[in-house]
Amino acid sequence: MTDRNKKILFAVFFIIFSIGMGYGMYYLFFRLGTAPTTPTTPTELTGGLPSAGTGGPTPGATTTQPGELPTTPGAAGGEGAIGALPEASTKLRLLHDGVTQSVTTRPDGSGARFYNPEDGRFYKVGADGSVTLLGDKQYFNVENVNWGNTKDEMVVEFPDGTNYYYNFEEKKQVVLPKHWEEFEFAPNDSKLESKSMGVDADNRFLITANPDGTEARALEPLGNNADSAFLSWAPHGQIIAYTDRGQVQAENQQEVIFVGQNHENFKSIYTVGRGFLPNWSPTGKQIMYSVFGNESNNKPTLWVISGEPNTLGANRRAIQLNTWADKCAWSDDQTVYCAVPQDLPFNAALSRKEFETLPDDVYRISVNTGVATKLMLPDLTHAIGNPVITDDGGQMIFSDVATGKLFSYDLK
Question: pTM for this one?
Answer without folding.
Answer: 0.79
